[in-house]
């Protein structure tokens, strides 16, 4: 957009949206916390981002789980 003149380069360079990618253990703890669900399998997918010249890793989770049933 900046290269096409739609916005100023300074505005483009200053635009920042913080992103938080939880670790697998954090996701697992939240799901299991109240005891209503179990995790059958979990897959973490990472993506990389460069900020201030530093490579940072972000992740997302996918998998399958189920609700626990009462006997």
Helix and strand composition category = alpha+beta
Strand order within the widest beta sheet:
1-2
Radius of gyration: 19 Å
The amount of helix comes to 10-25%
Distance between the termini: 59 Å
Order of helices and strands: HHEE
Please state the overall shape, judged from the principal axes of the Cα atoms: rod-shaped
Low-pLDDT regions = none
Beta content: 35-45%
Count of the separate structural domains: 1
Mean pLDDT: 76
What's the β-strand tally? 2
Strand count, sense and closure of the main sheet?
2 strands, antiparallel
* Individual helix count: 2
Oligomer: single chain
Biased composition (Polar residues): 61-71
Pfam family, one: Methyltransf_7
GO molecular function: metal ion binding; methyltransferase activity
Keywords: Magnesium, Metal-binding
List the helices and strands and how they pair.
Blueprint: H1 9-14, H2 24-32, E1 37-51, E2 54-67
Characterization of the model:
By secondary structure, the protein is an alpha+beta fold. The protein has one domain. 21% of the residues lie in helices and 41% in strands. Strand 1 (37-51) and strand 2 (54-67) form a beta hairpin. The radius of gyration is 19 Å and the shape is rod-shaped. The model has no long low-confidence stretch (mean pLDDT 76). InterPro entries: MeTrfase_7, MeTrfase_capping, SAM-dependent_MTases_sf. One of its GO terms (molecular function) is methyltransferase activity. Pfam families: Methyltransf_7 (PF03492). Residues 61-71 have a biased composition (Polar residues).
